[in-house]
Design a protein that fits this description.
Phosphorylase Kinase, domain 1; Transferase(Phosphotransferase), domain 1; Tumour Suppressor Smad4; 5-stranded antiparallel β-sheet; 19 strands; 20% helix
Length: 353
């Protein structure tokens, strides 16, 4: 029986896992529920210290917050951390979601891992039951018992992780790993949430993904470019996987599809481009003309003729307009009354969870 400081009143609920126990308590001083992760084995002391160091570095809405560290009976240590009510992502309600809900969930996972990596930490045990959704729909990643700082010292002897979600390089006897192991685990987690299972070859020891196109085969209707990014997360070779920052950015683009708006002001008159009005044509007769289309992700030049420039550069069909720019009709050799200038500004919507 673990003796806790008097301020922590046990609820009587205990969860036991491979890396230790979690005691669910109420903090009587601050009147809030907490989860206290405990490791009794002195050999595992390093793991809980690693978890504490990792959590203290986190400044993310998608990572649990650490409140305190306790020295308990004997060599036991405990981390007092934010309690997240509800079920983890192994629960059936998170499997086989509709496309938009699926993208929202995996975007939150990717954002959390991105923030973990930004702190110079590798989680090493990303999987559905190491994350929960709180009462406000915010996903939180937890359980840093395997976490390590990234860099040349990131090495372990033998496999440590979870079969099915562990990257191939983790199975080497002298495993040197990078943040790419979390990218692989993210890809496996996303695939599990999409299908409710993992293919046999990913559960092999070591996994044999062989660069298959898993996400393209799903009935969700995911855009092919996004499928390619998600499949790349499961690349057998670490160097072939994208960064979590890049994955998060791509997911955000697709979550915000058809939610942008641009304002073009020409001759004092505003013209709006959005999901309901996808095209605008801007012309100065006998001088130049440009057509701009909204494809749901970007505002793109669909046609240009004559003397046209965007921020003093000649546009090409297919160019994406920057978030804020000036479109000029008429070159600099013309008099002021023979030229026209259009300001073009794009709104930046946020993901609403």
């Amino acid at each position: 029986m673990i003796t806790l400081p008097a301020r922590y009143v046990s609820t009587g609920v205990v969860a036991n896992g491979g890396m230790g126990s979690v005691l669910f308590c109420n903090d009587s001083h601050l009147e809030r529920p907490v989860a206290i992760k405990v490791l009794k084995d002195p050999k595992q002391r390093r793991r809980i210290i690693d978890e504490l160091q990792a959590l203290l570095k986190m400044r993310s809405k998608h990572v649990v917050q650490v409140y305190d560290v306790l020295k308990l009976d004997g060599d036991a240590l405990g981390i007092v951390q934010e309690f997240i009510a509800g079920v983890d992502l192994f629960d059936d309600r998170f499997k086989k979601l509709a496309l938009d809900s699926f993208l929202q969930v995996i975007w939150q996972i990717s954002a959390g891992i991105r923030d973990i990596h930004a702190a110079g930490v590798i989680h090493r045990d990303i999987k559905p039951n190491n994350m929960k959704m709180d009462s406000e729909g915010i996903l939180k990643i937890y359980d840093f018992g395997l976490a390590r700082d990234s860099g040349p010292a990131a090495m372990t002897r033998g496999f440590v992780g979870t079969q099915g979600f562990g990257a191939p390089e983790l199975y080497a006897m002298q495993a040197t790993f990078t943040q790419a192991v979390d990218v692989y685990a993210f890809g496996a987690t996303a695939l599990y949430l999409a299908t409710g299972d993992l293919p046999e070859e990913l559960c092999a020891i070591p996994p044999r993904s062989a660069g298959r196109s898993y996400f393209s085969a799903l009935p969700l209707g995911i855009d092919q470019h996004l499928c390619d990014v998600l499949d790349a997360c499961l690349a057998p070779t670490a160097d072939d996987r994208p960064s979590m920052g890049a994955v998060t950015d791509v997911l955000m683009r697709y979550l915000l599809r058809d939610k942008h708006q641009a304002l073009a002001v020409y001759g004092g008159s505003p013209r709006y481009l959005n999901a309901n009005n996808r095209a605008v044509n801007l012309e100065l007769k006998g001088v130049g003309a440009i057509a701009i289309n909204y494809n749901g992700l970007d505002f793109v030049v669909s046609a240009a003729s004559g003397e046209v420039a965007i921020n003093n550069r000649r546009p090409n069909v297919g160019d994406t307009l920057p978030g804020s720019c000036v479109v000029s009709l008429g070159d600099a050799h013309r008099r002021a009354n023979e030229r026209a200038f259009i300001t073009f500004d794009v709104s930046h919507p946020e993901i609403v969870l």
